[in-house]
């Protein structure tokens, strides 16, 4: 899958589980680690894991196996490394604390439609 297709798959999975304030950044030509970075907020630790599970299920449906999850069951932040797309799922408090948006300020913020 192309990186933009992986991005769309992940954004749909996030939307399906009601991720909040989702932002995506196009970092092509800026970051050597990934083409796209995504950040979303979950209302609870339980929702955080539901969003991650939704992304994993979407990967399985599309036979996409190039992903890795960082974080634990008790984490307030999960990172899903999908190769050229990196997804960060936070609780609200953790997102405010880490403020990753500041790291990606040089990237182009993409329009994300939330359902």
Automatic annotation (TrEMBL):
Question: Which residues are listed as membrane-spanning?
Answer: none
Task: Tell me one GO biological process term.
Answer: negative regulation of ribosome biogenesis
Q: Which keywords does the record carry?
A: Cytoplasm, Repressor, Translation regulation
The terms describing its cellular component in GO are:
cytoplasm
What molecular function terms (GO) are annotated for this protein?
Answer: ribosomal large subunit binding
What Pfam family does this protein match (any one)? RsfS
Q: Kindly list the places in or outside the cell where this protein is found, as annotated in its UniProt entry.
A: Cytoplasm
Q: Which SUPFAM superfamilies match?
A: Nucleotidyltransferase
Record InterPro entries: Iojap/RsfS/C7orf30, NT_sf
Gene3D superfamilies reported for this sequence: Beta Polymerase, domain 2
Provide the function of this protein: Functions as a ribosomal silencing factor. Interacts with ribosomal protein uL14 (rplN), blocking formation of intersubunit bridge B8. Prevents association of the 30S and 50S ribosomal subunits and the formation of functional ribosomes, thus repressing translation.
Subunit details: Interacts with ribosomal protein uL14 (rplN).
UniProt xrefs under PANTHER family: IOJAP SUPERFAMILY ORTHOLOG, MITOCHONDRIAL ASSEMBLY OF RIBOSOMAL LARGE SUBUNIT PROTEIN 1
* HAMAP family, sorted: Iojap_RsfS (MF_01477)
The family assignment reads: Belongs to the Iojap/RsfS family.
This protein is called what? Ribosomal silencing factor RsfS
Q: Which gene encodes it?
A: rsfS
